[in-house]
Amino acid sequence: MKYLFVICFLFQIYTSAAGAQAYKYHTVKKGETVFSISQSYNIEEEDIYKFNPDAKEGIAVNEKLVIPVNASRDSKSSARNTQFKEHKVKKKETLYSLSKQYNVSIEDIKRYNKHLYSEELRTGETIKVPETTASQNIVVRNTPNPEPRVAKPKQITKTREHIVLPKETKYGIARKYGMTVKELEALNPRVEVLQPGMMIRVGTDVLEDEPVIITDERFRFYEVKPKETLFSLSQRFGVSQDSLRRLNPALNAGLKFGMVLKVPEREGAADMDDESYTGMENANTKIDLSSSINNFKTKEIALMLPFHLQKIDEDSIETYQNSIMNERVVRISLDFYSGVLMAVDKAKSMGVSTNLKVYDTKQNASEVANIININNFNNVDAVIGPLVQTTTEAAASRLENRNIPVINPLSNREMRGYENLFQSRPSDEILKNAMLDYISRNSSGKNIIIVADGRSFQIKNELSNMLPTARFVNPTDNFVEEAKLAEMMTEGENWVILESENINLVSSVTSALNRLARNHEITLLTTNKNNTYENDIISNNHLGKLKFHYPSIDKEYDSMATEQFMEQYEERFNTSPNQYALRGYDLTLDVILRLGSAENLYESFEKYPGYTEYYESKFHYLPNSGGGYTNDAIYILKLNEDLTISEANDF
């Protein structure tokens, strides 16, 4: 793989005395599996997984795998020392249920039952289940979580009569009287459709005018209108969602139509209520920085990543290479670094040279402080990295007084508000709110059905406030019967919003919807595509048939658009780039082009307020009220029936 090249690039000042393990590359052919490949080379699957850890997620045609050609099956003693229990497969049992029953991984079961790599589990067959000391001593106790209490909406005791005028809607009337639509409907339970001249009950608080109040030069008040989301408001006013929450603590309980929010007053915004507000236009405008390069001064970039180079003092490069296969953070760093190198070369071809200095943080905050103390950072234009929160904050805190930007590449955790800290990976909250915004804009005319478990009560409340006509299906013991879903289906478009991380609930809902999709038009959506959807139990074919929609930080790269990049990368590293290599390329090229089109990174955001986009990622930074910047640019993706992934455009 590419690791050998990257390691040698990093360690060119070191020498290695040890003899090298022999390797060869194998190009995956159609129909091949990890098991069949291991059989053809007379090695264990574990040998392939050791040098190709991504293969555990599956292999694709034309993918290149590193094969240790002199690995010996006879050297594997662990299999001989493992004790087994024979299990006869019962009806409805799955690899997942067996892994839970015996407290072993699905991969361990497959390892000792080779046919399961390419065949399904069959009722009545007998398989070997490995028994380990650890698994015998582990006792799992499941304590049921009580259902969270959901605050009931306030009851309106004082009412008055209101005669419905032509073109009036429930939204307009509710806003006029300071109510929510649900409160209005509760007062008028028999009213299905409003008709001019109809008399209905309303609250006594009358808001005759638009509640927009100018308070001072910095802030103003704004009333939330129907179908607005936190994401759309952040775009509208050019501030981060985090800033809006700090200014309005009530948002922690969710955004609600009719709320009056305190928002920053942007200089030069003559009419903030105008739908053509330029802040929103700028945020949704894609910009190409390659056509705006005017600063050709060599860029000084410091790259901080955890490589753990200290191991080279006692080990050879070969031994180091073998050891990093078991250290995920180092593999990620090397993948990311390979993308950085490609981006530096690309920028150079566009006329922007970079002096790249690479530092090993050893995943230690003290080491970061030491690096900054003993090296000259005065002329550094930007720091890319470190990876994790503690080391990133250590770098930002020591470089804040010099105003040197520190760009964290991968973490989505909330960090301390240093003015020079840029979080390039949008948080889960940003993903959720962007999906809510998409649903809000496109849900008109759809039959909305919401399935949410007890743990998802907060998003359930937000969806309820945003979609007052939606209907809810409450799971029983993390299961939803097909009949419950069927009785809510209509002849038109049915949108099912599924909010859960429970494998049993997601499995039961997707399976039931797949059957119902034979006679109904169904689209499945979620605000949180968690690891549950990657489980083998969840069928991608089902998700594809249901046109599964979800928010994502990165998109599927276009093989045609990236053809030249892929060829250059494979020629240089003898393998295809993974997500971390592409992330390293996209982020680094964005930073260099921003520096090449402005005096510094901060000025580039003022000159070019739109978003930039590369192979897999896009970037649009907004300031946080507590300090620093966050990237809020994400994708709404759709899984197609042929299992390709595309961007979901507004309907």
From TrEMBL:
Gene3D superfamilies: 3.40.50.2300, LysM domain. Keywords: Signal. InterPro entries: Leu-bd, LysM, LysM_dom_sf, Peripla_BP_I. The keyword Signal applies. One of its GO terms (molecular function) is lytic endotransglycosylase activity. The keyword Signal applies. Residues 1-20 form the signal peptide. Coiled coil: none annotated. Residues 24-67, 85-129, 220-263 form the LysM domain. Belongs to the leucine-binding protein family. This is LysM peptidoglycan-binding domain-containing protein.
